[in-house]
Amino acid sequence: MSSGARPKSQPVKLSQGRMYDIIRAPVVTEKSTMGSEHNQVTFRVPLDATKPEIKAAVEGVFKVKVKAVNTLRQDGKVKRFRGRPGRRPDYKKAMVTLAEGNSIDVTTGV
Questions:
Q1: 4 part of a folded domain
Q2: Is the residue at 103 inside a domain?
Q3: Burial (Cβ within 10 Å: 0-12, 13-18, ≥19) of residue 84
């Protein structure tokens, strides 16, 4: 019975407010800019956001078609604040690959 392929799940339903909560900010770095050559956009997202939620949020907010979503969880750096060790918070990044012919301009506001 198990053929190894997962069944396609139902599309995720998100409220407009949750969509804007999921897409926190675009990541504008040298590496994320190189991803734009391959039709990719990088966003900061909450730690509890799932790939289907991120896909639904990007499609809902920017009115584009998403081909794939890759995520990574980045641990916060240990830095010193006034001589005492402190820790930056952990965060999650989502690299969203857009379908051919779609684009998002991260330099403008939503």
A1: no
A2: no
A3: exposed
Token representation of residue 47 = 């730690």
Q: Are 41 and 28 in contact (CB under 8 A)?
A: no
Number of domains making up the chain: 1
Give the phi and the psi of residue 11 in degrees, each rounded to 5: -65, 145
Give the chain's residues under pLDDT 70: 1-9, 109-110
CATH number of the domain that 86 lies in? 3.30.70.330
Count of C-beta atoms within a 10 Å radius of residue 42: 22
Contact between 24 and 44 (Cβ < 8 Å): yes
**Residues pairing with 25 in the sheet:** 44
